[in-house]
Amino acid sequence: MFVLLLLLLLLLLLLLLLLLLLLLLLLLLLLLLLLLLLLLLLLLLLLLLLLLLLLLLLLLLLLLLLLLLLLLLLLLLLLLLLLLLLLLLLLLLQLLLLLLLLLLLLLLLLLLLLLLLLLLLLLLLLLLLLLLLLLLLLLLLLLLLLLPLLLLLLIIILIIIIIIIIIIIIIIIIKIIILIIIL
Fold first, then answer.
1. Is-above-0.70 flag for pTM?
2. Where are the domains of the chain?
3. 179 falls in which pLDDT band (50, 70, 90)?
């Protein structure tokens, strides 16, 4: 009888050791999952930052193009003014020169219209890029807000699993003690 009690106690100790090992393995797995989630979130943040940098570079390029177009517009306006002055001077001299200057004016006006259209297109592109930047900033803010919530949820799940394992160990110990008392 005494030998049976010793064997039961040894079995109880072995079970307790196995349960403790399982608990440690579960804790390690949960920690690995937490690390993987953190790495994924960091990678997402890095990708969003890279996209933001690219959009900023595109915005800078578009701004440079806008400046160049504005300079061209100013030059064309100056040319128009010069041509108008020439027209005023040559009105009394020759009709052919007048016609040629009128044609040049028309061409310059057409160029101005084209440049204005290009400016409008570039402004629309700038607006679209600004909207994309705002959306990316909103995504970054959402990720930064959701990161603590995910960590808190994982910690709560880990605590619940540990409590369940401890309750199972206590129930097994109580059953073994009851069996020993019955024997």
1. no
2. 2-182
3. confident
